[in-house]
Amino acid sequence: MSTRPRARNIGLVLGKMCPGPLNAITDVPGVVVGHVTLVRGEGALVPGKGPVRTGVTAILPHRDNVFEYKVPAAVFVINGFGKATGLAQIMELGLIETPIVLTNTLSVGTAWDALCGYMLEENPDIGVGTGTVNPVVLECNDGFLNDIRGRHVKPEHVLEALRSASGGPVPEGNVGAGTGMSCLGFKGGIGTASRVLEGGLEGRTLGVLVLANFGSKEDLTIAGVPVGREISTGVRGNAPAGSVIVILATDAPLSSRQLARVAKRCTAGLARVGSTFSNSSGDFVVAFSTAYRIPHRQHGFVTVSVVRDDSPEFACLFRAASEATEEAVLNALFRAETMVGRDGNVREAIPVAEVLDVLEKYGRKNPSSHA
Fold it and tell me: Could you report the per-residue pLDDT of 311-348, keeping only the tens digit for each?
């Protein structure tokens, strides 16, 4: 687990809302996260053998059988240059019926197959007495550091991530699917953050987990300061446009359509840190609510109570999505450690001391993104 600081550990208080106790997606009751990290080999790339810098991350909406007890969900496609699976059915039916798995681009097939097998084992009736299943897998490209052609993520790694998923603090940076990822010219990876909701939603939480693999150093912005242009540390190797995956969870009672409204506001947080949503990026938000479940075997009508669309509570939800996404990306950056990958390619950790010097230069000694 990384020993580097999170954003708040260095005095970065982003936004106006309070984080949850862990400042993580696992602050949403019932949500659990598991990682498997694969790092081995050094030196020149030998496709199929290494070096390996990759992994798997699994997010479960709850610990029960997700196929039997589905949760409302939505997808917002920011830019569709991605290879995700399972999104069309979520958009059509407004439900998630499997855990969510994140990995590298060329391991999506393996992850889908493993997740499918996991669901079949949990649900012997799938494909026999009931319908089939919709595994949800999303990806980013870690090929700058990883032997991505080797497809080193195996079914057992996916199953381990699913079965080891837990609540509590979420490891960030060079872990799980984030192991080989780059972000805004530096080492990226997994980041998370949360916000405690207010007003009529008091006592509820919104949390975000990001797989951050996007952007250039010149665009890196922290608390409104053009930090990337000011940092002297060089970035070795090209920084491609890359992609980002945002997983948003909340226990606020929202419909699928309402979750899509909230998911769109994650783009504000991404823009604040410097994303330009490149033409060649696969940028997706998957949002779900744990406030109620839809039983698989309950047909006909379902009656639930959700927040009114014209209520002031949506302003709170929108701000929470934006703030948590912004902080989750910065947590991914600050927690990530320098990594040397295939062919000696390097992604350096963001230099915390330099960042603080730049923020102070711009009058952000105690920075706030809304100052």
Answer: 999 999 999 999 999 999 999 999 999 999 999 999 99
197: closest CA among 15, 14, 17, 13?
17
CATH value at residue 332: 3.60.70.12
Indicate the pTM of the whole model: 0.96
Q: Is 281 a catalytic residue?
A: yes
pLDDT tens per residue, range 207-219: 999 999 999 999 9
- For the chain, the domain total comes to 1
Is residue 272 a part of any domain in this protein?
yes
Residue of 216, 243, 256, 322 marked active site: 243
Q: Which domain holds residue 17?
A: 8-361
From the candidates 194, 275, 283, 322, give the one annotated as an active-site residue.
Answer: 283
As a whole number of angstroms, the distance between CA 74 and CA 94 comes to: 6
User: Annotated catalytic residue: which of 281, 289, 322, 369?
Assistant: 281
3-state secondary structure of 32: strand
